[in-house]
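Q: Got a minute? One more chain.
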Amino acid sequence: MNMPDMPDISSRLDGLLAAAAATAPSYAADGRLYFLCDAGGSAQVWELPADGGRALPRSAHRDAVAFVAGSPRDGGAVFGRDQAGDERLQLYVLPPEGEPRALTQDPGTIHGWGALSPDGRQLACTANSRDPAHTDPCVIDLESGHVTRLLEVMGPHELPAWHPDGRSIILSTAPETFEADLIGVDVATGRTTPLTPHQGTWRHMNPRWRRDGAGFWLLCDLGREFVGVAFQAPGRAPDFLFTPGADVEKLEVSPDESRLAIVVNEAGWHRLYILDTANGVVLEAPSHPPGVITKISWRPDGRAVAFDLACPTHPGTLWLHSLGTAAATRLFSACETPAGVRAWTLVDFPTFDSRQLPAFLALPGGAPPAGGWPVLVWVHGGPAMQALPNWRPDLQMVLSLGIAVLVPNVRGSTGYGRAYAALDDRELRLDSVRDLAAAHAWLAADARFDAARIAIMGQSYGGWMVLAAVTEQPELWAAGIDYYGIARWKTFFERTGPWRISHRAAEYGDPVRDAELLERLSPLHKVDQITCPMFVAQGLTDPRVPPHESEQIVEALRRRGVPVDYLTFPDEGHGFLKRDNRRSVYLGVAEFLGRHLLR
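A: Always. Here it is, folded:
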């Protein structure tokens, strides 16, 4: 197999990156639909008029917009964006007509999105202006910009909902990945009231108050493997209404409170359902293409639900399910389906303890060459995350090179129950790396694939997985690609954003109490085991995995004479969001794989 023709690959990649995504729909009170679209190179606020007219952009920045929320009061919205990927989100008010206005102007503070008040005049958010490690609940007046800190808290928090009377908000605490409690906070006094008292570590999420204030619908896994839909009166036990054998991930209540729109994660593929609010009975299960849904929003008249949908062969599009119809219809697409894209198939493979692990497999077009296709194994981050069948122009580019792609959900992944997610906790961490060896063995046993040409790639915690794999299993991997991975846990905890330390320590191990374990799990100490060529990429404003982690591993590899390509981006943080930067890093990956996998 020959090296790829880079002009052809460049042209192919340009076509993939030009396929713009539309995501995160949110209705405003007058029926116009706001959403995010990256047609201009980074995600910006767009508006689809209530009369179904032409969609138009409403913001224009180089840095991506992180979220947008339509106003319950009028046709305006609120959105947030950071500077160069530093995650210090600032908030903006977008009027129904005209230019956005800055609501916060404190570039050193992270403003965590919460919720607009029922009357649309105030915004609940979190802010770490008092102490970088703690996100206090605040209320901002949208007209004056006046900020009121309600109370001082310890650690990270979210503000998912207001009480219908506008006098209190719900504070959500999440000290660990699989723990979330809800607390009522009085806006006038700051007085707190526990809403979900319970024993043990369980999740109470996505609360939506009933208009009479008697309780709220929520997503909960109290006593269960999977997250279900429940109704809960404050201080009482949840009454479960809908408990499929899979996680429910989204929930929104219709304006008349007769229906719940939910999204269920079915082996990574998302499905929209409409439930009866009283008893959880499924009223409608509209057909729609298989894919990934990140946001749902009821139209103000309550007769339809908008949602976004992405899949491996198409970037995000907007869809509308009108109640009483059998199928959802496409509402907006920012591009045509790109040519030559390859679908993903759900597969499973055996691992060392006889479990069958789920994965997605994508194959290049045509028949495998003599000796089999080379393969790229892509590992998700987290670790408490799940690789989903999403639009990935980088992986489609890899497939166009004639390289197959395997995307496993090794132990520790979410979406398969609490027990599965706990299988890699602390001392069991390297068991997930053993799962990668099992994935390699499964591929090597299939004549369609070349066992000598299997590379591994991941980002963030997935980057740590790559570094762990090439140090623990150096004989297996032909090449490694590490996007902003953790090289040494000690230095990671010393430099990561202080607002992240407590939550990350609960997942990975305490940097003091578990220091010995974390040192054993640090690939930097085993860098002498790495024999394969490496590609490392890093955003220089990354507050989560700071550049020092990549710099350490690159320096150590270069000292040993191991081939390593290192790309950095001064205007990117934890992820490459700008189209021109993605083009640079993806072309770098293509050229790297061409040299080391397509021989």
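A: The mean pLDDT is 93.
Q: Perfect, thanks.
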